[in-house]
Amino acid sequence: MTSTPALPLHDAELAERLTARLQLVEELLRDAVAHADPLADDASRHLVNAGGKRLRPLLTLLAAELGDPSRREVVDAAAVVELTHLASLYHDDVMDSAPLRRGAPSAHEVFGNSVAILTGDLLFARASNVVSGLGPDAVRIQAATFERLCLGQLHETVGPQGDQDPVEHYLQVLADKTASLIATSARFGAMFAGCHADVVHTVTRFGETIGVAFQLADDVIDLTSDGTVTGKTPGTDLREGVPTMPALLLRQRVAAGTGDPADAGIVALLDSDLSDDADLARAVAALREHEVVALTRRRAVDLARAAVDELRPLPAGPARDALVDFADALVDRAS
Fold it and tell me: Which residues does UniProt call coiled coil (predicted)?
């Protein structure tokens, strides 16, 4: 399997260099998930074999271009963030009851919930093994990132408490559950390429901001695509009652009495039993046509612009340009 950058890069030399290094990451991923136990090996390879855009390792490699990208630690760090991401997907799909992941049946659909959860744990262990070779600072950063991933999932599961604003609560969930690992991806790339601490800090802030924008764009895509973009069934989050920004904005309008009279009917539809595919399709179609989708897209674009602004202190050149392209491409998917 040959890995190529999932995002357009205008610098041909950089694209060629990243293609070669992504292939090294892919080889390391496959070695890292291999297991002597046949069941563990089969289950661990399930999502790796399904492919994916490898956005997190790509960001690690891009950030490393600001220093010395040829260091072997950069490839190891890129594999660590993807292993961590893959591990989290096994758990997420069980909690969300998602039938598809990357266009293939989710691991829990193939192996059952218990095996899927334990396989996610195995992959976290393999990620920890690889990161241990990168030194104590990397281990601490990985542990803090893992903690935020868990907190994000926990807070999403229990929902906002007391008088906490649901939209602000959701944005914090996205920061922890999604943006934390994207920020670490950029941080590791700059760190292990030997960049100055100021550069590491800059790309970490960039990753944190673009990570939230990325998830908001996904909220839009989940409603507006046919599933070929995400590899997931459209409206899966609606069916499972998982909050997304368009639904939260709609509920906010109804609660404040500021929306269209028809909004309450859409909320009632979202709150109904969506186990039937036809009912789910009706709910997706109703929300898809509402302006809250455009508002969510606008939030994603604004955050992407804020992320690009974070890059201003970096020296001009192909690496910074590629990071700008990375930010633009993540939200352009929702256009």
Answer: none
